[in-house]
Amino acid sequence: MRATDEHKATILRERARILALAVERAEVPDTYTEVVTFLLAGEEYAVPSTHVREVLVCKEVTPLPCTPPFVVGIMNLRGQILPVIELTRALELQPSASGAQALGRIIVARAVGADVGIKVDAIFGVRRLPTDAPRPSPSDVSSVQAPSVCGLTSAPPIVLDVEKLLSDTALTADRPMARSTDGPLAGVL
């Protein structure tokens, strides 16, 4: 039996009515945080991808005299002068014996309105971590590392708080020179 045009129109109207009905859905909050994971001193670390502008192969960095050991120097990034820091020194970690540091990567991170290059040993990639996964830092994290660690997951990585890490007042060039005692980057300039 062949459907008439009127019969087809009736079927299409019924389908449209069913599809137009409001479907009750439970609001499920986004339970994952996207992070960029990287190797640093033989450990897996991560920073939220919302703070990562890009990842670069470590290229020429111009050293700056009279700066703390964790300030690698500055680099020209498409006309922008970018300060570069080395987290292994800033967080007082033991450098990796693998020699990966020489071939490292630079994570261009943005926090508190400024961009900073963060030198790391290697990039693993982007992962999604459950937002409820980070737990408070354990007591064996050093006092230098503690302000920058937002928590640990049940497995690696150690998640760093980029806002706290890069908000040290010593990194801001438009403020008077002062020796800060807050955070791992205290007294940079």
Tell me about this structure.
- This protein has helices at residues 5-20, 87-90, 162-166, and strands at residues 32-40, 43-48, 52-57, 71-77, 80-86, 105-111, 114-120, 122-130, 149-152, 158-160.
- Strands 8-1-2-10-9 form a five-stranded mixed sheet, with no helix packed on it. A five-stranded mixed sheet has the order 3-6-7-5-4.
- The model is unreliable at 137-148 and 170-181 (pLDDT under 50).
- It starts with a helix and ends in a 23-residue tail after the last helix.
- It is 13% helix and 34% strand.
- The chain has three helices and ten strands; from the N terminus they run H-E-E-E-E-E-H-E-E-E-E-E-H.
- It is mainly beta.
- The protein has one domain: OB fold (Dihydrolipoamide Acetyltransferase, E2P), CATH 2.40.50.
Side-by-side strand order of the widest sheet: 8-1-2-10-9
CATH secondary-structure class = Mainly Beta
Main sheet overview = 5 strands, mixed
Oligomer: single chain
Number of helices: 3
Q: Which residues form runs of ≥5 with pLDDT under 50?
A: 137-148, 170-181
Structural class: mainly beta
Kindly estimate the percentage of residues that lie in beta strands according to DSSP.
Answer: 25-35%
Give the SSE string.
HEEEEEHEEEEEH
What is the CA–CA distance across the termini? 86 Å
What is the assigned CATH homologous superfamily? CheA-289, Domain 4
